[in-house]
Amino acid sequence: MLSIPPKVTPRAFERLSEIGAADQGKALRIAVEGGGCSGFQYEIDLDEVKEDDLILEGSGEKVVIDSVSLPFLTDAVIDFSEELIGARFVIENPNASSSCGCGTSFSM
To answer: 108 lies in a domain?
Structure first.
């Protein structure tokens, strides 16, 4: 079965540019780890690019995903959301069978 890499929206790349991630030599790292209230949780942080990372580029910015997390994020969409309650990077993951209310924990 062919896996479809995650996509990053222009709005997410714009936000990375606004915070100057590339100017700091950093990329937005999306990782999946065990834990959270639904079984898995997203870890989102600014980090340096590592050797086994998938690199998604746009507008001079980078989003990176490690090889262990990549299968959990097949065909996912990484976006940036700004609402009255706050602003954050969000992940629309078609592989998740359920997720918690905060959006950082999911099950498959």
So the answer is: no
Q: Please, are residues 87 and 19 in contact by the beta-carbon 8 Å criterion?
A: no
Structure-block tokens of residue 51: 């050797």
Strand pairing report for 7-8 and 77-83:
parallel
pLDDT 10s digits, 10-64: 999 999 999 999 999 999 999 998 876 667 888 999 999 999 999 999 999 999 9
Taking the model in full, what pTM does it have? 0.84
> Which residue, 81, 72, 58, is CA-closest to 6?
72
CATH of the domain at 20: 2.60.300.12
How far is CA 101 from its chain centroid?
17
CA distances in angstroms from 66 to 32, 53, 86, 105, listed in the order given: 9, 4, 27, 18
Residue pLDDT, tens place only, 73-100? 999 999 999 988 889 999 998 887 656 5
